[in-house]
TrEMBL record, chain A:
Family statement: Belongs to the peptidase U62 family.
UniProt-recorded name of the protein: Unannotated protein
GO terms for biological process, alphabetical: proteolysis
Domain annotation Metalloprotease TldD/E C-terminal: ranges: 235-468
TrEMBL record, chain B:
Protein name: Unannotated protein
Species this protein is from: freshwater metagenome
GO MF entry, a single one: metallopeptidase activity
Chain ranges of the Metalloprotease TldD/E N-terminal domain: 34-96
All copies of domain Metalloprotease TldD/E central, residue ranges: 128-229
Length: 471, 458
């Protein structure tokens, strides 16, 4: 399979020279991140395959650390000369001065595949990719005449990375991602409504053996149709039950970002100084796991060359650890946790999540609904965002229903929910036994997007503010 | 080009123009080709606790090639201008053509005779600005901010600048190139009171660093955070909201997709059948005008290389027109309004507003607040991407700000939402401020007062 080529992106002796150059002005650390990414995407809209796109992104980012200062430069020129010029720029950015000669001893190259890829997307004919789009389009439109518009997108990428640093780290990873999404518009007496479904994994085209794009399209179509009858969401505080695999974004926002050590270190997290304390309901165990085979946020190594890890962040409600990158771990004199990630070679790494999820509880999910007299059932959450310093966060509900007398009843129009992270974590009073991972996410921080996964069993939050308009 | 830079014929980039010309010259019979290249650089300085936390100095370049044949479109790009890579990109784009569905409206823009309005996009002073001065400016902003209030900490103080050059050529005769540069500073703050921490931010933009107003940015960033200390969750009720200029800018940005001609023709805009009808309060006149040099996103050409122009979208509350690219115009039997957008070399043109401006009123924000008996002054919204659906019109966002009672600013409030629908909010606008703020955004800021919005809290 062409995807597992062992050829290095840049030869080891060149890398050693570049790292030495990076330290030439006296910096104590230098790092090179090399990326070669090929991607294919195809989009369908209004019944037509609009275009197939082929992309190539290739380059290197060089980071030099001197004291508290990081210098960074990047280049798309992977020749020895190009890399040395970038290393010199990064070194100059980090410090002016002289530091003498450095010799870099690289460890043998380590490869860390996160999972196997059975059908490399780059070996699949483009026609097969395009066929998925047409099938999804036809399936969504077959559901109901109220479906007036369908768009679908297919995307795959094959990214080879190589990371080396002056401490001797020398690692490589081949990262494959395959993505499919479908959105529909339905129209009815009360205007238009939308439906959406997506899937994304770190495996190849075999993902479509187990996931039927027609079923996805039908789910999206049904969601839009159901919402045509939706009434305005309530305004005010109510119990909220969140369906398995649809609400991991709640934890991503309510505490995930707040547990990133760079934000904690600057005192910009509501979870600073809370290590060892009860920060959530004892039902909650929260894990960030970059090793989850095939999941959207899985990585063999992080973008600083360290193998991904499974990190327990909250155990039975008690805060056990933050997530760490190289710089923050160095400052605190501890090990990094495999959470140093970046969008591309043109970006500096920082602390990022991978796959973040809450483990199973014991309740039957149906009992959780039955135990709720009056509330909201969220079948699908959308995106969210958080102010980590205050802990206030929002997330959107894309498909939701009223719960009346322990039963799921009428569909609700879209709205945001708002809560305060520490309060919501404590207010989780019922946790199901039906854990599932959710849709692929793209997490934005400081202008950089990285793929992340999330998951949770069905759960209930005792009270959250629902931002609808109905009294 | 984004970030306030754009193209100007007096500002050509011959070597990039030569690259795209060469690609287009390779077109065979019956084949339309568009080549778009860009090259740019950035400097980013971040200061924390008096030290440079990071200094980024980087350059990038790339090419995107679109090929259209028999109504089918193929596209490819690469983040390099290496000759071999360009040949590969052209080959990939040609290969991709076979997989598109024939579309009678597919095609490149045609020259339409509309003249470009020259503007200044390049500042020599910025281009020559010394690295050491960029660093000291960033340190100065941090120091000024810390000096505003003893409860304030600075999470980060940033200086960012960028320069860019682009060139585009097509087999339909479009040939444009140009360059631009821009810069801004920004600061993020934290304010503490016991266990409570609130956040603030601010920025300052200018053609060159000498136009920055650092004391004003420092004041705003400190005030935004300290003002919210002690904030409570308000009760739920229907009320009047006073949107800060920054929030209004975000609100207008959401409206952009409803005025997009492609969305209209594909049934994704609730404005589709509303041309000529009243869709907003008669006080509302909304224009898209990238030819206004005050706009941060001012430009002289659009993403397809046609002249940018002033378009009146809503006039005295009546919907007048939608914005179009050449593709959406062909679909709808109209003409391009010079509103093709482009996210760089890695994408094909879309449609969108380029520089939205609301015709200002005359009152200051203070005067507008005085006119509100019972309401809330919205300083920040959160979750516009997750709680606003521009297709259905549902609008719900998290918010923080200050209560207004009898025309006076009262206690701070947070952890609540404001909700309505976009359709209703446009009709429910009751006052427009005269306090125009040319924010670094595609839409201008000014204070906007909207009645009958649902506030959800306790």
């Amino acid at each position: 399979m062409s995807i597992s080529t062992q050829e290095n992106l840049v030869e080891a002796d060149v890398i050693a020279k570049v790292l030495a150059k990076g330290r030439a002005t006296g910096a104590e650390f230098s790092e090179i991140y090399i990326e070669d990414k090929r991607s294919t995407s195809a989009g369908l809209d209004d019944g037509k395959v609009e275009q197939v796109t082929s992309g190539r992104d290739r380059g290197a980012g060089i980071r030099v650390v001197a004291g508290e200062t990081t210098g960074f430069a990047h280049t798309s020129d992977l020749s020895e000369r190009g890399l040395l010029v970038a290393a010199e720029a990064a070194a100059a950015a980090a410090r002016q001065g002289d530091g003498g000669v450095h010799k870099i001893a690289l460890q043998p190259l380590l490869r860390h595949p996160v999972n196997t890829v059975r059908i490399a997307p780059n070996e699949v004919p483009k026609a097969s990719k395009v066929a998925l789009l047409n099938r999804a389009n036809a399936a969504a439109r077959s559901i109901d005449g109220a479906i007036v518009q369908v768009s679908a997108a297919y995307g795959d990428s094959y990214k080879r990375i190589l990371v080396a640093n002056s401490d001797g780290v020398f690692s490589a990873d081949d990262q494959v991602r395959t993505l499919f999404r479908v959105s529909v518009v339905a129209t009815g007496d009360a205007g238009m409504q939308t439906g959406y479904d997506s899937l994304g994994h770190t495996i190849g085209f075999e993902v479509f053996d187990e996931n039927d794009v027609e079923e996805m399209a039908i789910r999206a179509a049904k969601q839009a149709i159901v919402k045509l009858q939706a009434r305005p969401a309530p305004s005010g505080s109510l119990p909220v039950v969140i369906k398995q695999g649809s609400g991991g974004v709640l934890f991503h926002e309510a505490c995930g970002h707040g547990l990133e050590a760079d934000l904690v270190g600057k005192g910009a997290s509501v979870y600073r100084g809370k290590m060892g304390e009860l920060v959530a309901s004892p039902l909650v165990t929260l894990i960030d796991d970059g090793t989850m085979s095939g999941e959207w946020g899985a990585i063999g190594i992080d973008d600083e060359g360290h193998p991904s890890q499974r990190n327990v962040l909250i155990e039975n409600g008690i805060l056990t650890d933050y997530m760490w990158d190289f710089l923050r771990a160095r400052k605190e004199n501890r090990r990094q946790s495999g959470n140093g990630r970046r969008q591309s070679y043109a970006d500096l790494p920082m602390v990022r999540m991978t796959n973040t999820f809450v483990t199973n509880g014991t309740e039957d999910p149906d009992d959780i609904v039955r135990a709720t007299e009056h509330g909201v059932y969220v079948a699908k959450l959308g995106g969210g965002s958080v102010d980590t310093a205050s802990g206030d966060f929002v997330f959107g509900m894309v498909e939701a229903y009223l719960i009346e007398n322990g039963e799921i009843t009428e569909p609700l129009r879209e709205s945001n929910l708002i809560g305060n992270g520490p309060q919501v974590l404590k207010d989780i009073d019922l946790l199901g036994n039906d854990f599932a991972m959710g849709n692929p996410g793209m997490c934005g921080k400081d202008g950089q997007g990285v793929p992340v996964g999330d998951g949770q069993p069905t759960l209930r939050v005792k009270a959250m503010t629902i931002g609808g308009t109905a009294a | 080009m984004s970030n306030g830079s754009g193209n100007s014929s007096s500002n050509n980039v011959p070597d990039l123009q030569a690259i795209v010309d060469r690609v287009v010259a390779k077109a065979s019979k019956g084949e339309q080709i568009e080549a778009y290249v860009s090259r740019g650089g950035e400097t980013a300085v971040r200061v924390y606790e008096g030290e440079v936390e990071h200094f980024v100095s980087a350059q990038s370049e790339g090419i995107g090639i679109r090929v259209i044949k028999d109504g089918r479109t193929g596209f490819a790009y690469a983040g390099t201008l290496d000759a071999d890579a360009i040949a590969e990109v052209l080959a990939d784009a040609r290969d991709n053509v076979a997989f598109g569905t024939p579309d009678e409206y597919a095609g490149l823009a045609e020259l339409d005779g509309v003249a470009q309005i020259p503007q200044k996009f390049w500042d020599d002073e910025l281009a020559a600005y010394a690295t050491a001065d960029k660093i000291s400016l960033t340190k100065e902003l941090e120091k000024l901010t810390l000096g505003m209030d003893s409860r304030v900490r600075v999470e980060e103080s940033n200086y960012d600048d960028g320069w860019g050059e682009v060139a585009v050529a097509t087999t339909t005769g479009i040939r444009e190139s140009g360059r631009g540069n821009s810069c801004y500073v920004s600061v993020s703050t934290l304010a503490d009171d016991g266990d409570e921490t609130q956040t603030g931010f601010s920025f300052s933009v200018g053609d060159s660093p000498k136009e920055f107003n650092l004391p004003k940015a420092a004041r705003e960033a400190a005030d935004r955070a300290t003002r919210l200390l002690g904030a409570v969750k308000p009760p739920s009720k229907r009320t009047t909201v006073v949107l800060d200029p920054y929030v209004t800018s975000q609100f207008l940005g959401v409206l952009s997709s409803t005025l997009n001609g492609e969305n209209v023709s594909k049934g994704r805009s609730f404005f589709a059948d509303k041309l000529g009808e009243k869709v907003a309060d008669p006080r509302i006149t909304l224009v898209d005008d990238p030819t206004n040099p005050l706009a941060y996103t001012a430009t002289d050409i659009d993403g397809e290389g046609l002249a940018a122009r002033r378009n009146v979208l809503i006039e005295n509350g009546v919907l007048k027109m939608f914005v179009q690219s050449s593709y959406s115009a062909r679909r709808t039997g109209t003409k391009s309004t010079g509103n093709a957008t482009r996210g760089g070399f890695a994408g094909t043109p879309g449609v969108g507003c380029l520089a939205m401006q609301l015709q200002p009123g005359t009152q200051s924000q203070e005067e507008l607040i005085k006119g509100v008996d019972d309401g809330v002054w919205i300083q920040m919204v959160q979750g516009l991407h997750s709680g606003v659906n521009p297709i259905s019109g549902d609008f719900s966002t998290g918010a923080s700000g200050m209560m207004i009672r009898n025309g006076a600013v009262a206690e701070p409030v947070r952890e609540f939402t404001i909700a309505s629908t976009l359709q209703r909010m446009l009709l429910d606008i009751v006052a427009i401020g005269g306090d125009i703020d040319w924010l670094p955004s595609r839409a201008v800021g000014l204070t906007l007062v909207i009645r009958d919005v649902t506030m959800s809290g306790q």
